[in-house]
Design brief:
By secondary structure, the chain is an alpha/beta fold. It has 13 helices and 19 strands.
């Protein structure tokens, strides 16, 4: 059974102030997890985590992670703006984008962020629009399949990201000719992987490539960035990744490959998102309808616009009916939202205790790629975000959208504008 980080009485008090649905985050859990990560990689003096802003782009959470020593990984103009506003600057910002607009590169250079180039053609493009910095990173795509223990984890050859191996050598030489003095090497080869061998296997690929690149180009490689990819146990029966075993596996490969090559000054970077905040967030909802036709349905006041992953990926998210954790799960439901789409289901044929109208229903593991993937289909309004502070109090860190927010970007004539965003919506 998966446990939630908030008690029923505590949640009832929060709901009195902030109506459901809303995403709730656990400050204590996020801080403790960041400290575990840094402890695990403490063998590498230059280690740094660059939190993937796209996972949970909320300034309060970003500032918490900043206090724990994390930087940020940005992929867009607005993520750069948000990070700048939260006090991140210079080498605390990694800019990893693809199909990058000129304005994004210009802002990244103005903020002195470390740019992680996705394609060899971006070298000339970056030089033209913003200039080439002295430190730069290149993203590697080895192609083919990514295999751990004879099992295919993902297929980089089908991914749109990164340089080929030949392009890396050519790209390093071109960049050296344009004044680059320090390089980073980056790769992301699998998503949501809880196998403790993922990072060590990736490390072997990147470390060997780094040694080859130094031999071929003489470049100084200052850091190697493993990106993200460490997953979380969405299902109760899954084991969580052991970050200490992972870090120790990376250390062994580091000592095997980089140290003998005289490259023991290389810093290890990560760009974790899901691992950092995923288990420390949940979507709090209320059961508002039953429907019994060919199947039995329980309808929530949230929908796929609040949490897209189950509809988009058929992803599993555990569900707890608050206060009924110890009751038998003897009722089968499809748990749905109210969108005009049949895939708007948080769970299909899920065995749960009997759900009564008014029950608080919590959907687990929404602390990353939950609110961030929300949208406004059917005119649904995006929910609030609330932080459960370490002292047990609740803090609103993003208010719920209103109809006025939804209509604010339309260019109405005065009569329509007055009707839609008049006083009654303010």
């Amino acid at each position: 059974m998966k446990k939630i980080f908030v008690e029923l009485d505590q949640l009832r008090d929060i709901v009195k102030e902030y109506p459901t649905p809303f995403h709730l985050y656990d400050e204590k859990g996020i801080r403790e997890n960041a400290r575990r990560l840094y402890e695990a990689f403490s063998w590498n003096p230059g280690f740094k985590e660059f939190f993937a802003v796209k996972a949970t782009p909320n300034p309060t959470l970003l500032k918490i992670l900043k206090e724990e020593g994390c930087g940020v990984d940005c992929s867009s103009y607005t993520e750069l703006m948000l990070s700048d506003a939260c006090g991140f600057e210079g080498s605390d910002i990694m800019f990893s984008s693809n199909v990058t607009p000129r304005e994004d590169f210009i802002l990244a250079r103005r903020l002195n962020a470390t740019i992680n180039l996705d394609d060899i053609t971006h070298i000339d493009f970056l030089e033209k629009v913003a200039g080439i910095p002295e430190t730069i990173s290149c993203r590697y795509n080895p192609g083919g399949d990514f295999v751990i223990n004879n099992q295919i984890m993902d297929t980089p050859g089908e991914a749109k990201y990164g340089f080929t191996r030949r392009q890396l050598t050519d790209g390093f030489k071109i960049l050296q000719g344009k004044g680059v003095k320090h390089f980073g090497l980056h790769a992301f080869l699998a998503s949501n992987n809880t196998d403790n061998n993922y990072y060590p296997t990736l490390a072997r690929i990147l470390f060997q490539t780094a040694v080859e690149l130094k031999r071929e180009t003489g470049a100084h490689i200052a850091f190697i960035n493993f990106s993200g990819g460490i997953g979380i146990p969405y299902r109760p029966e899954q084991e969580a990744a052991d970050i200490f075993a992972i870090a120790d596996g990376v250390r062994q490969v580091y000592e095997e490959i980089l140290v003998p090559a005289g490259m023991e000054d290389i810093a290890i970077y990560t760009e974790l998102g899901r691992y950092m905040t995923g288990p420390y967030g949940c979507l709090v909802t209320t059961a508002i309808h039953h429907k019994n036709i060919h199947k039995n349905y329980v309808g929530l006041d949230a929908c796929a616009a609040n949490l897209m992953r189950p509809a988009m990926y058929k992803a599993y998210h555990h569900i707890t009916v608050m206060g009924k954790e110890d009751l038998p799960a003897d009722h089968m439901y499809d748990v749905t939202g109210g969108l005009c789409e049949n895939n708007d289901k948080f769970a299909i044929d899920r065995m749960l205790p009997k759900v009564d109208i008014g029950d608080l229903v919590v959907i687990h593991d929404t602390g990353a790629h939950g609110y961030a993937m929300g949208y406004n289909y059917n005119g649904k309004l995006r929910s609030a975000e609330v932080l459960l502070r370490e002292d047990g109090t609740a803090q609103l860190i993003r208010r719920a959208e209103t109809p006025a927010d939804y209509f604010a970007t339309f260019d109405f004539d005065e009569s329509v504008n007055a009707k839609l965003i008049g006083k009654r919506f303010r």
